[in-house]
Write a structure and sequence with these properties.
The strands form four sheets. A six-stranded parallel beta sheet has the order 1-11-2-10-7-3, with helices on one face. Strands 6-9-8 form a three-stranded antiparallel beta sheet. A two-stranded antiparallel ribbon has the order 4-5. A hairpin with a 2-residue loop joins strand 12 (298-299) and strand 13 (302-303). It contains 15 helices and 13 strands. The chain has helices at residues 5-17, 34-45, 94-105, 122-134, 167-170, 182-189, 195-202, 223-243, 249-260, 262-277, 280-286, 305-317, 326-339, 342-355, 373-382, and strands at 2-3, 24-27, 49-54, 64-71, 74-81, 87-88, 110-115, 136-137, 140-142, 146-152, 174-178, 298-299, 302-303.
Length: 387
């Protein structure tokens, strides 16, 4: 099934809390933060640590090596697990095995994370079979507090790199397909990612993740690449400060383009130029005097789409963190009506409702709860043809 970030957090949390539950396989496109989510859940739940196993780079002898031991007069063979594996070899003595298990758990245990398992060689996948299904490697047993989670790109994301993911292996997992969504990512990114990027993506969510548009691309927008773009903007600004120079919009565009692609970076550039053009007073006037507020520049019979998107995004995000008054909401709707563009106005209304979800509860659908009804009624009256 396809699941969002919130559902994935819950599924990982359940597996971590129940190590003997069926292991979880997370499918998903590159760059959407599959590994980061597992780490985040571990951090929040404080249930031990992550052992990140890059299975695509491993060989069977990276897990265990053959050895011999003497039992009475007899020499026997046994695979000895590598020291990084949190396992123990049962002795048959209950008390002794309990102590060995505690040592293997290393305290709280954690997660054995099998990364890119579908890219691993067939022999490594076979090595993982008993670990996943029976929690054993050779004669060794996995510590009781260790959970197993795996993640991998979908076959269509990398058809040449993905090996045959066998039915036997797949049957040992509960499998989910993680679909990233901007809203969940934004909640995480609010104090970690450059606010100009968040404002841009608020109204241009089609640029949040673009690999599915062209799987052949080597540079594409994703949660990971937008975070990288934000970090690189910060490094660029710091370098300019150290050197006593200025950073131009062109400089920022080039940095962003190296992470998400120049086509998207060019749109971001137009957004940055708008930030320079419109003052805070211009943004505020949309919510106070919409009939006088500055409009986007003209383009053909309407307005420039990129500038209009950016302007509405700025107005909406300027209200984040406080409650929008009914009067402000009605005046914002009046501005959307003034745009005389059903598609643009609908997107603008949707964005404001996403930022202020409590507005949904005050639309007059319940007696006495109609604080924002006037604004929505005005919107419907203007754009009734689309309802």
């Amino acid at each position: 099934p396809n699941i969002d970030k919130k559902s994935l957090y819950r599924r990982i949390r359940i597996v971590i809390a129940n190590p003997n539950a069926k292991p979880l396989m997370i499918w998903g496109a590159p760059g959407i933060g599959k590994t980061a989510i597992v780490k985040a859940v571990l951090l929040v739940t404080k249930k031990g640590r992550l052992i990140d196993i890059q299975t695509s780079k491993m060989a069977p002898d990276d897990w265990a090596l053959p050895a011999t031991y003497k039992m009475g007069e007899e020499i026997k063979a046994r695979d000895i697990p590598k020291s990084w594996l949190p396992v123990y070899i049962p002795t048959g003595n209950v008390e002794q095995d309990k102590k060995l298990n505690e040592i293997a758990n290393m305290g709280e245990g954690g997660v054995i994370f099998l990364d890119e398992l579908s890219r691993a060689s067939g022999s490594v996948q076979n090595t993982c079979l008993k670990l996943i299904d029976e929690r054993i490697i050779g004669d060794a047993k996995l510590g009781s507090k260790w959970s197993i989670v795996s993640a991998s790109n979908r076959a269509g994301d990398d058809p040449e790199g993905v090996q045959n993911f066998s039915t036997a292996l797949g049957n040992r997992f509960s499998q989910v397909n993680y679909i990233p969504d901007f809203k969940s990512w934004k909640e995480w990114a609010i104090d970690k990612v450059d606010p100009r990027i968040l404002d841009f993506l608020e109204f241009n969510q089609e640029y949040f993740y673009t690999l599915d548009d062209d799987p052949e691309k080597s540079i594409f927008a994703s949660p990971r690449s937008w975070e990288a773009a934000s970090n690189n903007i910060a490094l660029l600004m710091q370098d300019a400060k150290d050197q006593g120079t200025n950073v131009s919009i062109k400089d920022i565009t080039e940095v962003v383009g190296s992470d998400v692609g120049m086509d998207i970076a060019t749109e971001f550039q137009a957004f940055l130029r708008l930030l320079e053009t419109f003052k805070k007073e211009d943004i505020k006037e949309v919510l106070t005097h919409p009939d006088k507020a500055r409009m986007p520049k003209k383009a053909g019979s309407g307005f420039d789409q990129a500038e209009a998107n950016a302007l509405i995004s700025l107005v909406c995000t300027s209200t984040r963190g406080r409650e929008l008054t009914p009067d402000e909401f009605s005046k914002y709707v009046a501005y959307l009506i003034r745009l005389n563009n059903p598609s643009l106005a609908t997107r603008g209304l949707k964005l404001m409702l996403e930022i202020h979800p409590y507005i949904h509860d005050e639309l007059g659908e319940v007696a006495g709860k109609d604080k924002y009804k006037a604004g929505v009624d005005a919107f419907i009256e203007k754009y009734k043809d689309i309802f």
